[in-house]
Specification:
The complex is a heterodimer of chains A (313) and B (393). Chain A is built from 10 helices and 14 strands. With 313 residues, chain A is of the alpha/beta class. Chain A has 2 domains: 222 residues, P-loop containing nucleotide triphosphate hydrolases (Rossmann fold, 3-Layer(aba) Sandwich), CATH 3.40.50; 65 residues, Alpha-Beta Plaits (2-Layer Sandwich). In chain A, strand 4 and strand 5 form a beta hairpin. Chain B has 2 domains: 236 residues, no CATH class; 132 residues, 3-Layer(aba) Sandwich (abc type-2 transporter like fold). With 393 residues, chain B is mainly alpha-helical. Classes of the chains: A alpha/beta (313), B mainly alpha (393).
Amino acid sequence: MPSVAVSCTALRKAYGDHLAVADVGFSVQAGESYGLLGPNGAGKTTTISILCGLLQADGGAVEVGGAPMRTGRCEAKRHLGLVPQDIALYPDLTARENLRFFGRLQGLGRAELRTRVDEVLEIVALEDRAGDRVESFSGGMKRRCNIAAALLHHPQLLVLDEPTVGVDPQSRASILDGIAALQEHGMAVLYTTHYMEEAQRLCDRIGIIDEGRLVAEGTQAELLAAVGQHPVVRLTVDGDPAVLAGALAGERFVVRTSVGEGRIEVAVTDPARSLAPLIERAEQVDARVTGVEVVEPDLESVFLHLTGKALRD
Amino acid sequence: MTEVVTRPETTPVPPVTGALVLAAKDVRRGVRSRSLILTAVVGPLVLGLIMALAFGGSGGPSATIAVVDLDATPTSRGVVSVLSEQLSDGPVSLRTDLGDARQAVADEQVDAALVIPAGYSASLFADPLALQVVRNNQRAIPGEVATAIAGEVASQSDLIRAASSTVVAIDRSQAPLADVGEIRPAITVDIGNLQESFSAALYFGPLTIFLFLGLGGAARNLVREDREGTLARIRSVSISPRVLATGSAIGVFVQGVLASLVVYAVSSLLFGAQWGDPVEVVLVLVALVVALSGLSTIITAAARTEAQAEGWTNAFAFLFGVIGGSFFGGAQFPGLLGTIGSYTPNAVAMRALIELGPGGRDLVSVLPLLGALVAVGLVAFVIGSQLMVRRFA
């Protein structure tokens, strides 16, 4: 099995004058989980559509399992399993009928298909509801069945396009645990989401996409370091925060300060070691500290830094 | 969810298998949602029953047939007399002049004309002449009824000759033969039964309308699948647009054949419709469904919304249905519209059915019609497949 599950280079797709995807390129190794993080309309689904052979790119190339991807019939498609954003199941068919249908299209023989359907039903904990129509399922059960249909042929690459939209917390946790388990067994996972916490929890590497461009890529630590994000100590003070900001200027552990009404935010190099000196300084300028909050930097702040807007804009 | 450990063996699904799997899914969903039962079984039967009642019970369509006697002999007058009696329950119009009869057919004063040719009586003792039929191509069924009558008369030429011979034999002590008014042969032509033999037209028309309406089912399915995401999942598997088109067409074909067979069986068994030889009927119905399944791929590839699918479907159903004579028991438009309508798949199939009816032609004679239907289906399928490739390229 090739160690690179998917690689795409210089993908480009335009709709008229609108450039939906511009020179996007990344690769995902076997057993790796890669998150494509961006707000709605950033180009995630277009990128996924090109990658899965649903859409012809205007430029660039995609290889899945070492084989070139095309919109028609091709070897590359045998190596991938797609979990579309929508519940891509037939509501009037049972879970088992849906899985049998997609399994047959994926090239599973009859005996193998029977075994695999039972296995994936167990994986998504739907074995007791196998004979029920999908339309009778809860939202979370539909999502789990939606994922099951992409697992039947155990693809090298599992592509999940926002798989937890509209799912209750319990089902979401179950889905994320399941995806992590798949990854541990060598399956590469490409995960698009605009839920920052999911990307942080699940993905080994993250690509941040905005307005069709991949603006940054790396592990979470690499991204935070690259954009110079620091922990922030947020102090609520009884006194003039501007005076405190002036007193903190030049301190070794302070990166920058930001003053608001009755509060001050201090970006620091090390919050654990900075807290005591900060409170001490405040007392020296008659600004009594009434509240302290330490905010660790996250992908939201990285995204904000890179694009100038919030992830959910 | 728990973990996955096995890796199954997979082989690329062959295009034919892929198409059959897709088609089976469409049929299964059609049955489960009852849409197939409604559009392919209940609808045609209800409409057919209404048509049967409108045209006088379960009997066939009535026709006005003129009889023209150009032989003007006692024998021919006897034949006319027998036909007049047999036609006593149905309208008949006697004409003495061929031109007058042709004009009457052309003007649709009568639906068809039977002509006893000059020399008919004399020919009985050598090579009997057949009664000729003057028909209006826009009035296919009455023309076929007249042809069936001519066939019945021809099949009883021995009885007519026998009647003539008897009169000739006893003639020597009687008045000259020319003074004999008519010689009535002991022949039987059950016109009512012949008309009933074309009663299948009453069910065939509605059946074709609903087959046309079924064309859009595949298009609507594809649009819905596109919207709901199942199409993306199907396309992410190694299924080409041509396989999609083939699966869709097979689904329409299976549903169409099923609908045709149900209507054929139920109209025959419950309403006494006479379609003709079962094998021939099935071949005609299958050829028609092949044509329509091919046309369905064009609609499927072209329609991007459910409204478009609906619009294309209705346009096909009502345009082809009206000008092709599927409404009102096969009645067609006069003039250019009628000529165009006669080339619609439903009209061609109807022609094949009635030509295969009693006194009509054999299967080999209508093979060109069936071939034309299959060819239309294949050409339309190729066009539809190409459109599908362009759509998903």
